[in-house]
Amino acid sequence: MLPERATARGIVLSEEGVILIRRVKKGSEYWVTPGGGIEEGETPEVTMHRETREELEITIDNARLVLEVRSIVNGVLQHDYYFTGKLAKGTGNKIAGPESERANGDNIYDPRTVTLAQLDDINLVPDYVKALIKRILMGENVDFMELNLLPSG
């Protein structure tokens, strides 16, 4: 039986675009949405609010669940919840919390606002989130979706 991990992530919309975190780790550059592991007793939405507040010192209004994903990542059964919401307080341009303590020259956390035009030029992981963010930034009304990437059988 595989170990399990559940996370909650925020697709945080600002006036200019979406707040993402540029990561450089072990020589690889990639981008992620802010978020992290769900702690015992937390709901996914509570986790998303806690993680975005801890990582970026921001608060989010009108959060709603838009994507739930089940997959296997590095031998771990992963269950990810993606929420979208509007930036209510803070700028999201500075890393904070445990991430700021782990940051160094080989482990970079660099939050930035990314515009719709810039999305194609970044390595946002996982890749299916980029298409979702594009739809949201283009003003589409995105309904809740479930994505099951588990092997069948």
Describe the protein's architecture and organization.
This protein is of the alpha+beta class and 153 residues long. Helices cover 20% and strands 44% of the residues. The chain has three helices and eight strands, in the order ββββαββαβαβ. It has helices spanning 44-56, 97-102, 127-137; strands at residues 4-13, 18-25, 28-32, 35-37, 59-73, 76-89, 107-114, 145-148. Strands 1, 2, 3, 4, 5, 6, 7 and 8 form an eight-stranded mixed β-sheet that branches. Strand 1 and strand 2 (18-25) form a beta hairpin. The longest helix is centred in the N-terminal third of the chain and has 13 residues, at 44-56. The protein is globular. The two termini are 14 Å apart. The model has no long low-confidence stretch (mean pLDDT 96).
Structure at a glance:
With 153 residues, this protein is of the alpha+beta class.
Task: Please outline the helices and strands.
Blueprint: E1 4-13, E2 18-25, E3 28-32, E4 35-37, H1 44-56, E5 59-73, E6 76-89, H2 97-102, E7 107-114, H3 127-137, E8 145-148
